[in-house]
Amino acid sequence: MDYSDYKQLLIERDSDGVLLITxxxxxxxxxxxxxxxxxxxxxxxxxxxxxxxxxAVITGAGKAFSAGGDLSMVLDIANDHDRVSHxxxxxxxxxxNLINCEKPVISAINGVAVGAGTVVALxxxxxxxxxxxxxxxxxxxxxxxxxxxAAILWPLLAGMAKARYYxxxxxxxxxxxxxxxxxxxxxxxxxxxxxxxxxxAHELANGSQLAIRLTKRCLNSWLRAAGPxxxxxxxxEMLCFMGPDVLEGAAALKEKRQPNFPSARGVx
Length: 268
Prior knowledge:
The strands form two sheets. The protein has a six-stranded mixed beta sheet, sandwiched between helices. A four-stranded mixed beta sheet has the order 4-6-8-9. It is α/β, with parallel strands linked by helices. The mean pLDDT is 95. It has one domain (9-264): 2-enoyl-CoA Hydratase, Chain A, domain 1 (Alpha-Beta Complex). The protein has helices at residues 34-49, 71-77, 81-100, 116-123, 139-142, 150-158, 160-169, 175-180, 190-205, 209-219, 221-225, 227-240, 245-255, and strands at 9-13, 18-23, 55-60, 66-67, 105-109, 113-114, 126-130, 134-136, 173-174, 186-188. α1 (34-49) runs parallel beside α3 (81-100), α3 runs antiparallel to α12 (227-240) and α6 packs across α7.
């Protein structure tokens, strides 16, 4: 498998068939622009088909795992039907390609994970998180429904009460708390996150490949069964991109102020 055409993802081969994928836009805290979104959607199909890879580890360059969607991308697709339709298709690819990837995927969450970063961080089969990392799904703060992966995954990980709380408020979760409520597999000091992820990857790479892959396939049947929930949430998110709230949400984030959503004005 040739990964040379990936520009936003740094992909390196380790020993034992371990593939290290680094989200590589550190000057922007690895925020997801259109090019990176495309790469994060397709890389899991390539990993699955890669005969030389047994396990993939994904982390972020610098201080962040991925600091959400680039606001320029948000503004580019808002109220543009063709771009919204493309984003819906690509979002589905990202989620389903990761769920259906034959190889185990381990996330080394070395810092903040928001937006598409959260999708990859939490949909990974094993997630190793820094105790001080912040994880969140801030869709509602942007003015769009919580699409991506959250509606199918968060209730399974943390239970419905916690999923409702964090997805309705958009509040961030600290790594230590994320481990306590079951959102991540382990929380460790930041400098131990990637070494532990790689240790586990090499252990899996030297295990029974068929047994591990089929176990993953069985476990992810919970997510495939919830596919209609994901499809609904993704469609609702894209519907919100065709409304006015997302423009105010993006402006508020850019100006670092509280949003004044049109849908909330004039409420008694």
